[in-house]
Amino acid sequence: MATPRELGHSGLYIAPLVLGGNVFGWTADENASFAVLDAFVAGGGNAIDTADVYSAWAPGHEGGGQSETVIGKWLAQRGRRDDVLIFTKVGMELGPGKKGLSKAYIKRAVEDSLRRLQTDYIDLYQSHKDDESLPVTEPLEAYAELLKEGKIRAIGASNFKPTRLQAALDAAKNGLPRYESLQPEYNLYDREAFEKDDLPIVQASGIGVIPYFGLAAGFLTGKYRAEADLQKSPRGAGIGKKYLNGKGLALLSALDAVADRHSATPAQVALAWLMQAPGITAPIASGTSPGQVTELTEAMSLQLKTADVTELQAARPVATA
């Protein structure tokens, strides 16, 4: 069993992999979602990340809340609330007048999330996107009240500019609660922004990091290697535009080589790299079947060698004449 890691100074201890709930009620129906959640816990996972906006982008899902609702039903039916940590988020637009991080809106939104999740507390409540129309202190004031009321246990930030994240951390020195985690985009393909701008802040402050897109929207699983592969999932078109290029194919080649040496899969290697990366507490990854999730949780026991990490990080497109 993987050793739990504390998320910042929150007192929340999590396995080195967080299950992403973006697919629940969307590409995974309720039965499939329950099977995925069961497999994740069986594989040693204990933290589930979702958001109130999941999956408002899908036709007929206006207003969001589908993922939280599915997780809430699973928690109730399985009696697992004390076994797992629930991370959710607030701030993305759900409809007219339902977005942002104003104190009043957060106080309303948390009640909706609690109802859908069928719980009376949220372990990690995250600002899904910074609200730059407000001072960084306003959401912290709302979170202070929710912490006092016992409705949330810790807070986190996602998609914040480094200057605003630092300002929020500085504000917390004056009696306001502190963001104990950052949820940025970070993976083997997308490294520069986090490593250059965010890593110095999180290392200096000691906050945890739970990156999303750990598998680059599925590209680093090796599932997408040619144009024809892009029809395999709803994400295919976006993957083709961003990742299916010389850099991406060089990374897949390096992942294949390291995976072969460890009798592992490219997805397991990509996640193991993240789990061992400086500043990272636990990457977030999602799956739509128990088999996929079992593959992901097995990455928690994969230990990469220094030579493996060097090979992965040095992957470059092959020069052509």
UniProtKB/TrEMBL annotation:
Pfam families: Aldo_ket_red. Keywords: Oxidoreductase. This is Alcohol dehydrogenase. GO terms for cellular component: cytosol. One of its GO terms (molecular function) is oxidoreductase activity. SUPFAM superfamilies: NAD(P)-linked oxidoreductase. The keyword Ribosomal protein does not apply.
